[in-house]
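Late entry, evening session. Most of the bench is empty. Finally got around to the prediction I had been postponing all week. Sequence below, unchanged from the version circulated by S.P.
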Amino acid sequence: MTTSNSSSASISVTRCDVCIVGNGAIAKTAALGFAQAGHSVTLLVPSSTAPHESSAAGTGERPWDVRVYALNHTARDLLSSLKVWDALDPGRVAPVDAMAVNGDGKNGGSLGFDAFGAHTGALAWIVEDSNLNGALDAALKFAHKVEIVKGCGSRLTCGPDGAAVQLEDGRRIDAQLVLGADGRDSWVRGQCDIGIDYRSYHQKAIVTNFACEKPHHGVAHQWFTCADGIIALLPLPGNRVSLVWSAPETLAATLAEESMSELAVRLCEYADGPLGALKPLQPEAFKAVPLALVRPHALTAPHVALIGDAAHAVHPLAGHGMNLGFGDIVDLLRVVREREEHRGIGDERVLARYARARKEDVLLMQLATDGLERLFGANLEPLRVARNLGLNLLDKLPFIKRRLMAHAIGQS
């Protein structure tokens, strides 16, 4: 990685192998992955970026994040290989030992998964955003081949030998490969004129945390309802759970106006049996995030690759949006590592291999999440009966259940 100044125009130019645009966990993990593979990396983050407060350095009394991730084995293995997983605060990570999925109505179907049946120690791990980003930030401080540049891109251009990211203040970053890890509304994707298929779910994800009266025993609970959307309560350390309620927009607006105590009362209809009474954690925190399906028409452009939500935004009902992003990094690092000696890391054929490697995994997740949202969102009695029967039938087919779980947890 080199930085030079042009005397004629006083332009600062940073040259590197990989320029990563983004400031989330996916961007940071990709930066560490490429740096540890021997490539020079420039991580372009917004000027207003503030460092995350690390849970690992805390006392355990910090408020619990409302934003959490259900990380699967693919994510854990990648983070472990980068020496990040062991840097997480273990007291704030909760393993998911089982899942209980419930259909709608009084006689709704049910489906259960557990780690024992999947032949693994845990199905997933619930990790707070600040815990993950804090560990990544600490690792980046010791990454010798990573330079963090604060600024905002104004133009992305590609030539035969690489790509150039022009910043608003006149600086430039030249790279063999540019990674767009800048979220659902990706600037990199737009600069490459990559079109998208977009479908709003007309829902918002209501996220917050509660203390529960009964022990959750590491079980993640999910209720597919027609009128109220999809409700998930994920285990946190101790007698705590994280709520992810994918609520129709009208209901979401009502929930946003109610107090946390009123929200807890609403949840009693579903959670009272397995978890008992719910109590808002202090200090109270609440977020509402609009939900949409975003499918780019391509994952790559000349010397450019998309990863994370920039490459695919899916419904959170399966909790695998972040895991798809980690899968992107694993496959991209692999095809770059296995490329022929005469090909650069931004070579067209190398990037085409990445796109092919991700096609099946991403498409399956998009079809599954979008299909389930459509199926359980239809308020028709014949469909209600059929989907509840389907859940009960699937619960009695252990071979198919194991195959589904192997794919979901990243062990397929």
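Two things to note before I forget:
Residues 2-53+133-196+294-371 form a domain with the FAD/NAD(P)-binding domain fold (CATH 3.50.50.60).
The chain has two domains: 2-53+133-196+294-371, 68-128+198-291+378-408.
Will write this up properly tomorrow.
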